[in-house]
Amino acid sequence: MGKNKSVVVVGGGIIGLSTAYFLQKEGHQVTVLDKSDISSGASFVNAGYLTPSHIISLASPGMITRGIKYMFNSSSPFYMKPRLDPEFMKWTWYFKKSSTRSKVDSAMPVIRDINLLSRELYEAIQSSGDLGAFEIGDKGLLMMFQTEEARDHEMEVVEKAKKLGLEGKLLSKEELAALEPNIEVNAKGAVLWECDRHTTPPLIMKKMVEYLVNANVTIHKNEEVIDVVLSNGKITEVKTNNASYTADEVIFAAGSWTSNLSKKLNLKLPLQAGKGYRINVEEPTNISMPAILMEKKIAVTPMEGFTRFAGTMEFSGINHTIRKERVEAIAKGVEGYYKGLQVPEKAKNMASCGLRPVSPDGLPYIGRAKGVDNLIVATGHAMMGWSLGPATGKLVTELISGQPLSMDIKPFDPNRKF
After folding, report:
1. Helix (H) or strand (E) run with residue 105 in it
2. What are the sequence ranges of the domains in the chain?
3. Which of 81, 254, 258, 298 could be disulfide-bonded to 379 (CB atoms 3.0-4.6 Å)?
4. Which residues of the chain have pLDDT under 70?
5. Residues 6+ away with beta carbon under 8 Å from 163
6. 291-293 and 141-145 strand pairing
7. Terminal CA-CA length for the chain
8. DSSP letter at 412?
9. Is 46:52 a contact under the CB 8 Å cutoff?
10. pLDDT tens-digit profile of 351-385?
């Protein structure tokens, strides 16, 4: 296969930048286009986890029923804003069809494999020194519970994970206290997943941009793709509000905006934006362990320089409206698990949100688009975008370079039927 292709990557989040990283390593000429200044969005506000333990996809049995129950409570962890939008209705229907026990079970080994591949690649990037120093915390991840119901739910995951070679360990209240000694935790216990890691996303994103620029990757910030010209089944031109680009290959890695781009090519790509929020607390919290507060669905991550509380899944279309009641729900949820912890008003007022691209079955779209010879789609990672950035970048690079694939990508086919 011919080397040194020219490639346009649309999207400068962790997926787009990881793709650019591996492409330039193979000698391709890469241009990244992003409509923002690459300082905000889902890649900057997530919990920073690398989570092989999260083997159950979002589209799991009972999720829609829960969503309908939550629909009228805008501070609930999983919120669907009622709206008569045909695309949203269709996506919801596909989501429901995907939420079967057998579909969830067959997705589990696939989710494990891509997560383990990605964790390995993060570690390889770290040891290469390309980005300078950054931490990959290897304390694992705690799933903390206050109720027996949540404990039993996680123990079911432990049983399934064991068959896939992943170990989850049930901790008593006392064992949990020993692991998190400097703050009193209000929980009955936790499950510890030692396979998981945690990172500081804003730091890694900044370092990645700096590295790519030095490696001769062209990054155009504040350039929005407004049109894509197709001729004889190939993209011949990518037009932005500023300029026009031609390339041998084009990659759509624009997160939640990818569905709007694919419409320009008459491609059907069911995708909804799932909004997540984050609060950063810069004052010391005495929290040393990454944890998910199960009943509240809140992620807690000690990062380099601050503690991050992240959570909620809100389906309300593409917007960056911050709903105060949702920020408040995260703060209250955290305070209900850590005795004496108070989330400062300043931190709540500086809360930020990002839009995760969610496919109907919770699996990403990675692969060539049908009917467009030189287009690869890389999006739809839901809550695992940060975790799966490097693996996606590597797989896309292998496709473009004509190399053997690190794993079977058939389950991620962007043309799959729901």
Report:
1. helix 101-128
2. 6-412
3. 258
4. 1-2, 71
5. none
6. parallel
7. 33
8. G
9. no
10. 999 999 999 999 999 999 999 999 999 999 999 99
